[in-house]
């Protein structure tokens, strides 16, 4: 696989000329299991497939266009320049086997790129999944590191919604369910003070939309600006099992009983499309009668 190749995806949904189009640059910070890649493509392609489905359920329907770039330079990737994001409405940072709190050269370069984009593009949306969630929290001054318990949150998990989360997902339910695959977490959420005046005004609020027993910061939200999730939106049963397998074989996951229990939950239904629909609403308002 050409790790630094950048491709425009074919749209699954072709909007009418008057329908809105959302253009997102996916910054890939990892590669899928080889079997997943052969079946579903790169993480950028998987993101496109997932958000295209959510776009079809938007009111009115949205077209979703994705471009991707693999940014792990120590594996042949590249950090794109700021002008590569012209014409895009936002970016999404994927999950990764790397630590978002680490100081690898590519991670520091990516943080610098994100900082420049945040300052120069006030209209831009920043999305993060797992590693991406943690990296954007770090950008804004949050504390990121291994879970205090040193254990993993794996498989199909229940996330307790805050009032902000209930409003974002347009539900009266107290919970949503998503697949998890992480040991690191956001230990303390960023604030306007931790971000500093160059990134956020003093009165800006960074909301936490959900929590779990393992991870108190499951996602961050700033209206029209930021949406992150610790959990994975687009994982299917095979992806969950394969990603667990990768981490067991690498020695990252040492509790094999925990890994086996998590793999047994891989077939359970989850709310990934509902979360993707909420993400798209930070780009284009969904006129379906809700606030």
From TrEMBL:
One of its GO terms (cellular component) is cytosol. Residues 85-232 form the Glutamine amidotransferase domain. The lineage of its organism: Eukaryota, Fungi, Dikarya, Ascomycota, Pezizomycotina. It comes from the Eukaryota. This is Glutamine amidotransferase domain-containing protein.
């Amino acid at each position: 696989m050409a790790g630094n190749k950048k491709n425009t995806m074919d749209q699954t949904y072709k909007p009418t000329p008057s329908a809105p189009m959302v253009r997102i640059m996916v910054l890939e910070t990892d590669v899928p299991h080889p079997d997943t890649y052969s079946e579903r493509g790169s993480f950028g392609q998987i993101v496109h497939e997932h958000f295209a489905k959510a776009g079809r359920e938007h009111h009115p329907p949205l077209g979703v266009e994705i471009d991707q770039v693999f940014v792990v330079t120590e594996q042949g990737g590249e950090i794109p320049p700021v002008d590569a994001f012209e014409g895009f409405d936002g970016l999404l940072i994927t999950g990764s086997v790397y630590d978002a709190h680490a100081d690898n050269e590519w991670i520091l370069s990516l943080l610098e790129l994100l900082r420049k984009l945040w300052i120069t593009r006030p209209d831009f949306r920043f999305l993060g999944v797992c590693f991406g969630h943690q990296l954007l929290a770090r950008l804004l001054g949050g504390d990121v590191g291994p879970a205090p318990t040193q254990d993993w949150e794996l498989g199909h998990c229940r996330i307790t919604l805050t009032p902000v989360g209930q409003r974002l997902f347009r539900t009266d339910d107290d919970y949503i369910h998503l697949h998890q695959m992480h040991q690191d977490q956001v230990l303390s959420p960023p604030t306007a003070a931790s971000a500093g005046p160059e990134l956020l005004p003093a009165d800006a609020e960074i909301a936490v939309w959900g929590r779990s027993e393992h991870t108190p910061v499951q996602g961050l939200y700033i209206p029209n600006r930021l949406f992150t999730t610790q959990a994975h939106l687009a994982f299917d049963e095979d992806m969950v099992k394969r990603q667990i397998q990768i981490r067991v074989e690498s020695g990252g996951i040492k509790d094999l009983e925990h890994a086996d229990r998590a793999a047994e939950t891989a077939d359970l239904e989850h709310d990934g499309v509902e979360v993707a629909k909420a993400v798209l609403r930070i780009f284009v308002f969904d006129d379906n009668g809700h606030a």
